[in-house]
Amino acid sequence: MTTTRFAPSPTGYIHVGNLRTALFNYLIAAKSGGTFILRLDDTDPERSKQEYADAIMEDLEWLGLTWDRVERQSDRLDRYEDAAQQLRDIGRFYEAFETPTELDLKRKKQLNMHKPPVYDRSALALSEDEKAALRAERGNGVWRFKLDHERIEWTDGILGDLSIDAASVSDPVLIRGDGQFLYTLASVCDDVDFGVTNVVRGSDHVTNTATQIQIIQALGGTLPAFAHHSLLTGPQGEALSKRLGTLALRDLREAGVQPAALLSLMARLGSSQPVELHGSLDEIIEGFDISTFGAAPTKFDVQDLYPLTGRYLAGLSVSEVAATLAELGVPAELAEPFWTVARENITTLKDLGPWWTLCRDGADPLIDDEDADFIAQAMTLLPDGPYTADSWGAWTNAVKDATGRKGRGLFMPLRKAVTGMTNGPDMSALMPLLQVIRAKG
Ligand code: GLU
User: Fold this and answer.
1) Cα 172 to middle of ligand 1, angstroms
2) What is the tens place of the pLDDT at every residue in 212-225?
3) Cystine design at 292: which of 78, 206, 271, 403 (Cβ 3.0–4.6 Å)?
4) Do 258 and 385 share a domain, yes or no?
C-alpha cells in the first residue's frame, strides 16, 4: 500500500515550487489507490501560523489535491522525545555546545585549508564535567546525530544511483539548545510511524536524505523510496527562489489561472512527456510517471499558464460557467449566446467583465478622422434593435450599397465604431448581444 506525504511548513503561502512536490506525491498515491497525507511541519512555534495552515489547505482544495488525513508535528512532540532518547541509548546522539560564531570560525579555517566545512565532532571528546560546566555557562547544548562514516547509497526515483560519503556531511543537529525538535528528527519519525513508502521532494533535500537514511535505520524503521525532483528556474534559467514569493498559488488564482492549466503544466513540465491540456485530474493521474522526469533544472514561465487557461475555458459549456455569468449580471436568456462568443475571446474569466460591459453599455466608438462621414452615413442605415444574427449582414450590405465600400475598408471602420476595438468576436454573433451601439459619427 503506497503512502506519500506533502510536508509544508505553515510559515508562508505555498507557491509553484511547492506545488510540484505536492502534486507528485498526490499523483503517486492516487495512481496506486494509496494514501496521501498532508503533514504540517510546524515544530517552529514562532514562525508557524494557523492562518498559513488554513491557506495551504485552501490552495490544495482549489486544485482538487485532497488529502486522506492531516498530521501536525506539533501534536507529536512526545514521540520525538522518545526517539531522541532511543538515539541517546544507542550512543548515536551527543550534546554539543559551540556557539554559532565558533562554528563559523571553524568552517572558515577548514575552507582556508581547502577542507570541507564539516563539523569536527570536538564535542565527542568532552567529559561529563566539562559538559556540565559548559551547560552552566551557555545553557543546554544542541543535540547532534552521530553519523556512521560510510557511504550512504540509494537508488533515487529520478536521479538514479546516488552515493554520499557520510564523512563529508556534518552530524546533523536534531534538537536546538532551547529544546525545539528540528525538521530532520520530526520528519524521520513521521515517515516511519505513518508508513510512508515514497518520499518525493526537491533536490535541495538530497543531503538531508542521506542523513535521514541513517537516522531511520538507527531508529529501526523501514526506508521509503526516495525521489528528488529538480528545482524550478525562471524562463531564462535564472534562479527562481527570490521570485517564488510572487508565484504563490493564491496569487495565480487571483490572476485568473485555472486549476486545470496549473495541474496540466506542473504534472508534465520537466518530464519527457509533452505538456498537454488535461481537463481532469483523472487524466493527469493516468499518464503520470515519475521516472520520466529529468535531473536538470526545470524552466518555468508563468506566462505558459495563460494560453492553457484560455484553452481550458474555451472548452467549457455554458452550464459550467453559469454562476460566473450570473454574478456578472448576464441575463439568463443571453447566457448561452454570450458565452459562445466570449469564450473564444478570453484568456481568463476576468476578461468576461469587459465583454459584458461592451454588450450592455456599448463601447466608446473608435472612428478615424477619414471615416467620420462614412460612419455618420452608416449609422443612419443601422437597423433598429434588438439586433439578431442577421443584423450585421443586413447592415453591412446596406452600407456597401450606399457607399460603394467593400472588404476591409467596409468592415473594419464599422467594427471599430461599434466595439471600439480593431479585433474581437465574429460581428454577426456579437450583434445580437449588443444592447446599445453608441457610435454617432
Ligand atoms: N517541511 C519540509 C520542507 O518544506 C519538508 C521536506 C520533506 O518533504 O521532507 O522542505
Assistant:
1) 16
2) 999 999 999 999 99
3) 271
4) no
